[in-house]
Design goal:
This protein is an alpha+beta fold. Helix content is 23%, strand content 12%.
Length: 360
């Protein structure tokens, strides 16, 4: 038995024992159990539960490098997803290069190896059907692991006004989000309300895709893509339909209420209690107990075929001047290949590194 297996069994046993013999406040939080997993479980791919309360069986890992993508934040070990999501993201990276003149995508968090609640950063991303995509374009060289963990990711929002920062917004960003939203698998895309407002102003007459783009706190330097429950996941809980309309007439609440500083008399924010295993689908216990899966990395080549998807499925998060052109010409996307191309190293000054985002 490996050290990882012994650690997993110890943590799972601890969680089950405390759940049976101790009050809720003494239980081991599910985020600790799932956060301790370093590999997917053996079993068929399944998304279990809801996007913000579930787990992932038989997950696949996104290759760190592809012809038109790089995976960021490797130290987090959150580059796992349902295989359909992996194929979708690889295909989207190629579509973005062709349709949005976007050299390549930088992928952020997807899910943990077995999904489940995370120790920090997200309430969702639990069932392998969510992924963050940065609004910073892939550079012309391969980043080192250290750079991927520490590279600054600039916000496109003016923090003083909560509206778009026109010095950082580019027309290609609209094209990128529109390319993603038009994909049939995509259920929702979350962006900062200021980004949604900018999309509404500049989308033109083709506005159907805006229905999927939903305003959300944060999301000022990336957008969050969510796809629908997939065939073969009978325990995946879908969402309600997004309704009709482009949503551009529902932004006043965000700017007039939600994004305003709280009143001095307002009650302080109370962090929600942790999720315990008893609150997750029972199948998630089996996911934790299952042996590790071998060979869980998807081949680094975009899939060309489209699989049938479930029908599009409010969401646990829903609440109700011309752009500046790029300073430099766009570089064409590298040609697709079965393996990641070998990029020649560049001097550090060749990769413009935007200033760090202010600490929260």
């Amino acid at each position: 038995m490996t050290l990882g297996s012994r650690t997993r069994l110890s943590l799972v046993a601890l969680g089950l024992l405390t759940a049976l013999s101790a009050p809720a406040e003494a239980q081991t939080a599910a985020k600790e159990l799932f956060g301790a997993e370093t590999r997917p479980n053996a079993g068929p791919p399944q998304s279990i539960g809801f996007y913000s309360k579930g787990c992932l069986s038989g997950g696949m890992e996104m290759p760190k490098d592809g012809p038109t993508w790089q995976v960021m934040k490797p130290s987090r070990n959150r580059a796992f997803a349902h295989p359909t999501m992996i194929r979708f993201l690889q295909r989207l990276s190629g579509d973005a290069a062709r349709e949005a003149n976007w050299r390549g995508l930088l992928f952020g968090d997807m899910a943990q190896p077995r999904g489940g609640p995370m120790k920090d950063g997200h309430a969702s991303h639990q069932i392998g059907l969510d992924a963050d995509i940065y609004l910073t374009e892939m550079p012309t060289r391969r980043l080192s692991p250290h750079e991927r963990d520490t590279m600054p990711l600039p916000s496109v929002i003016d923090k003083r006004t909560n509206h778009i920062d026109l010095s950082r917004w580019r027309p290609e960003m609209l094209k990128l989000i529109r390319t993603a939203a038009r994909e049939p698998e995509v259920e929702r895309i979350f962006v900062h309300p200021g980004i949604k407002e900018q999309l509404c102003k500049t989308a033109g007459r083709d506005r159907v895709w805006l229905n999927k783009v939903r305003p959300m706190y944060g999301h000022d330097y990336h957008f969050h893509v969510r796809i629908v429950c997939q065939p073969g996941s009978p325990n995946c809980q879908p969402q309600e339909p997004t309704g009709t309309g482009d949503g551009c007439d529902k932004l006043d609440y965000w700017f007039n209420v939600a994004l305003r500083p709280p009143k001095p008399s307002a009650k302080p924010y109370k962090k929600p209690p942790p999720i315990f295993m008893s609150a997750l689908p029972k199948a998630c216990n089996a996911v934790l107990n299952a042996p590790d899966k071998g060979g869980a990395v998807m081949a680094a080549s975009p899939a060309q075929s489209r699989e049938p998807v479930a029908a599009a499925l409010s969401d646990d998060f829903d609440t109700g001047a011309a752009p500046i052109p790029p300073a430099a010409p766009r570089l064409p996307a590298p040609p697709a290949a079965a393996t990641a191309p070998a990029y020649a190293p560049e001097p550090a000054e060749a990769l413009p590194m935007p200033r760090f985002r202010p600490a929260n």
